[in-house]
Amino acid sequence: MKETAVPDAIDLLKIRRSVKPREMSAPGPSPAELETILTIGARVPDHGKLTPWRFIVFEGDARVRAGEVIARVFAQKNPNAASADVDVERRRLTDAPLVIGVVSFTRPHPKRPPRSATARAGLAAGLRSTATSSMGSD
Question: What's the CA gap between 21 and 19, in Å, rounded?
């Protein structure tokens, strides 16, 4: 193996763990930190240059509005759900000061199967998470 490993990056990858949203507190990342997080998240292998993912940033009142949509869809899909369960979904995005959603989408491509787009979006989410951890958040 070439001696090009970055010790700090290797150390981070060894210790990285997820944090529960309810354990996160304000402030969220600064605009500059958010830009760095999204830039790093987008650095996944993408051989066809299709960028089959999108990042959606929810902060402030957008978290509450998205929570209302999530609760409505959850209640439609689960008509017998207890109101407490619907409320959990309504508050899902409000624990953390900022939430970055990762959306995968596919379009027909002669060489790239749809599962490739899903895998790339998953990789983007993972890199986003690692970048966030490196800044002291998750």
Answer: 6
Q: Are 66 and 58 in contact (CB under 8 A)?
A: yes
Helices 7-15 and 114-134: crossing angle in degrees, nearest 10, is: 100
- For residue 97, how many other CB atoms are within 10 A of its CB? 16
**Per-residue confidence (pLDDT) for residue 77, from 0 to 100:** 97
Locate tokens 């999204």: which residue? Answer: 38
Instruction: Report the distance separating Cα 5 and Cα 89, nearest Å.
Output: 41
* Domain 28-133 listed as CATH 2.40.50.140: no
Helical residues (DSSP H) of the chain, grouped into ranges: 7-15, 31-41, 61-77, 83-90, 114-134
Q: How far is CA 40 from CA 6, 34, 66, 132, in A?
A: 16, 10, 25, 9
Tens digit of each residue's pLDDT (9 = 90 or more) over 70-114 = 999 999 999 999 999 999 999 989 988 888 898 887 777 787 777
- State phi, psi for 42 to the nearest 5 degrees: -85, 0
Helix (H, G, I), strand (E, B) or coil at 69: helix
